[in-house]
Amino acid sequence: MVPSTSNIGLQGKMGQQIGDELIAKILGLLSPADLARAEASCTHWRGVSREYGLWTAHLTRLTAAIAEHRQAAVNAASEQPADARQASAHNTSRSASAACAAGTAESSDGCPGGTESCKRRYTELQMAQRWRHGRTQSRYLAGHTGAVTACSAWGGRWLASGSADQTVRIWDLASGITCATLRHGAPVSALSMLGPSTVAAGSGPGMYLWRGGRCVRKYSVEGRRAAVRQLAVLDSALATASGDSLVPVWDLYSGSLQRMLRPHEATAVNCLLATELGSQQVLISGDSQGRVVLTDLEGSSPLAELSMHDFLGMASADLLAMTPDGRRLLAAGSRGEVMSWDLRMLGGRPGFAGQVLIRRPHRTLVSAMSVPEYGADVFALAGPDGHLCLHDLHSGRLLRSIQRLGKSSVLSLAGVANGWVGGRADHGLVLWQFGGWQ
To answer: Which of 71, 101, 321, 392 is deepest in the core (most CB within 10 A)?
Structure first.
């Protein structure tokens, strides 16, 4: 007897359903890291993961683990003397409450944003716990013969470091080996890594684009002799600052000078950052008077002006950082004051979008600031004492202070996978990595 076409179709659907259930059971046995790899390797597996809510299960288990970790810390604190117990319990409660409360709410809501929302929230919670409680290890990278004044990471594995020894080194962080050395004619003071073998670097008054170990483009403004101090790259736009009020913007690929900006009028520009806000390409710059200006890169028109002075007095905007989601902008002064702005509020009343994170610095000076390469609610500061200090992104509270491998000044900082890399005055780099917390 030959089965009908409808029966064949029904059997096929049942077979596919049974097959998907089996796939879901197998995928459900994987660790979160392996599940993410499986989803990336097969679109059908990714669909099965979404349909069967595998990330919801991981998020639920993580939330429970965070609650257990928090309770264990409270129990340990209860065994200490009264004064130490009160302080320890207070710190433990503050450090864990935000992550645990968020995780509980998300788990009970059943991930209203869908499986992708659960996956994102799982990652954010896991990273938040890692920054706060993860075990740390440090590694020293040697090779430069001068102070490491700039560093930039790409893809979690690759790092470019610029030095007073007039070189840029490309590092494979997995092995700690230098893959290439790019020689310049003056100390390297600014750089941006654009790919595994592509780097834009500022050396003396010139800018250079390197690809595959070769200098393929040079950018300069006739008559300018001041060294490049800052640079920012966004798509095909390259902007630089040299300690005066002018910000030249080049086409990255053709090398042609597109426009000359003066975002702070006569005041010198201290720091630069480029990002996309909605459909606009935006250059963000800070000056010694605490002003942070957002400029439309294409139209050259100012979009908003933010002020640290209104909140912190005579603070100077010396360092800028942007969270990976592009929502929050951080500005820091060399004395350690830090402010943040929620850029989603800038279309309304930008003067009310600012928040002081650090008013009275716990350290005297700050020379570098960075956010994690992947989304999390912390930011890092470093300075002359050689410490890496992690702060809560929402309150500015100091979470951890880590010092490894001596007290040499940290001059530059870059977020990498599971940690940060700091360029130091003693000619080396320190890789801080954060591991498991359970």
So the answer is: 321
Q: What is the DSSP string of 71-105?
A: HHHHHHHHTS-HHHHHHHHHHHHHHHHHHHHHHHH
Q: Is 419 left (phi over 0), alpha (psi -120 to 50) or beta?
A: left
392 CB contacts (<8 Å, ≥6 apart)?
98, 377, 378, 399
Tokens of 352: 């009310």
Instruction: List, in order, residues 6 or more apart from 144 with CB less than 8 Å away.
Output: 161, 163, 165, 167, 169, 427, 428, 429
Q: Is 163 helix (H, G, I), strand (E, B) or coil?
A: strand
Q: 278 in the Ramachandran plot: left (φ > 0), alpha (ψ -120 to 50) or beta?
A: left
Rg (CA), the chain: 25
57, two tokens:
């299960």
Nearest-angstrom CA–CA distance, 362 and 338: 12
Cα 326 to chain centroid distance, Å, stands at 10
Phi then psi dihedrals of residue 200, to 5 deg: -105, 125
**Which alpha helices (H) appear in 248-338, and where do they start and end?**
309-312
Distance CA(164)–CA(189), nearest Å, equals 8
Tokens of 363: 């350290």
Check: pTM over 0.90? Answer yes or no.
Answer: no
Q: Per residue of the chain (438 residues), what is the pLDDT tens digit?
A: 444 444 434 344 444 666 888 999 999 999 888 998 899 899 899 999 988 899 998 898 888 988 888 888 788 777 766 554 454 444 444 444 444 444 444 444 445 555 678 888 888 888 888 888 888 889 999 999 999 999 999 988 899 999 999 999 999 999 999 999 999 999 999 999 999 999 999 999 999 999 999 999 999 888 788 889 999 999 999 999 998 999 999 999 999 999 999 999 888 999 999 999 888 899 999 999 999 999 998 877 888 889 888 888 778 899 999 998 888 999 999 888 999 998 877 655 444 468 889 886 655 688 999 998 776 789 999 988 888 999 999 999 999 998 767 789 999 999 998 899 999 999 999 999 988 777
Domains assigned to the chain: 7-133 (no CATH), 136-434 (2.130.10.10)
**DSSP structure class, residue 224:** -
Eight-class DSSP state of 352: G
Amino acid letter for position 17: Q
Q: How far apart are CA 184 and CA 171, in angstroms?
A: 17
Q: Are 173 and 158 in contact (CB under 8 A)?
A: yes
Cβ neighbourhood burial of 165 (10 Å; 0-12, 13-18, 19+): buried
